[in-house]
Amino acid sequence: MEQRYLKTTRDLIRIPSIAENHEAIFDAIRFVKGYFNDTDARITKYEHRGKPSIVIATEEIKKGKNGTRDFDVILSGHLDVVDAPREMFVPRVEDGKLFGRGAADMKSEVAVMMEVMKEILVEKQNGGVVPKVALMLTTDEEQGGANGVGYLVDEIGYRAKAVFVPDGGEDLDEVIITAKDLHIYELPAKE
């Protein structure tokens, strides 16, 4: 797995998928789709306001009565990166570490999720019982995510019992279990 993961990460780094590079963000989506050509994955591509996304799933999930597409697990990541000089899109290994634009945010994490998803799909193809899993990859996280995850959740209706977003953090050896939190407050108003 390690060699496939490293090769996939390097291939992703070579794609200069910055927000302003419309062709490259679509190239990244095509790369991901091609990675799953030899599986029976259910692949759905979306585009909202010029930003493509792709969902690779173990099975087709149609909208339920509540208007949602419910999964057991969603693996969520982004393929876009912050702009950098062209040489940053040439991956290199130094002292056992991979360097290149997106290596830590989050093309290496996407490569791992792609490999995990492929293993789940192979298990299913071989007759194994697997949960309903989706790999959701977007191309606008560096611009806020409204046309990627925001669109897929709010308008398309994707939901899951658990969502894993292995986006970078302060210490790459530390697992962060929360980064943002939802708080709902009710404030009484007087007339």
Structure in words:
A hairpin with a 2-residue loop joins strand 4 and strand 5. Helix 1 crosses helix 3. The longest helix is centred in the middle third of the chain and has 23 residues, at 103-125. This protein has a single domain, classed as Aminopeptidase, CATH 3.40.630.10. It is globular, with a radius of gyration of 18 Å. The mean pLDDT is 88. It is built from four helices and seven strands, in the order ααβββββαβαβ. Strands 1-2-6-3-7 form a five-stranded mixed sheet, with helices on both faces. It has a two-stranded antiparallel ribbon with strand order 4-5. The protein is α/β, with parallel strands linked by helices and 191 residues long. 30% of the residues lie in helices and 23% in strands.
Write the layout of secondary structure elements.
Layout: H1 2-13, H2 22-35, E1 42-48, E2 51-57, E3 69-78, E4 92-94, E5 97-99, H3 103-125, E6 133-138, H4 149-156, E7 158-164
Parallel strand pairs: 3-6, 3-7
Antiparallel strand pairs: 1-2, 2-6, 4-5
Helix pairs in contact: 1-3
* Number of structural units classed as domains: 1
In CATH, the homologous superfamily goes by the name Zn peptidases
- Major sheet: arrangement of strands: 1-2-6-3-7
Radius of gyration, taken over Cα atoms and rounded to an integer in Å: 18 Å
| Main sheet attributes: strand count, strand direction, barrel closure | 5 strands, mixed
| Percentage of β-strand residues | 15-25%
Question: How many separate helices?
Answer: 4
The CATH class, by name, is Alpha Beta
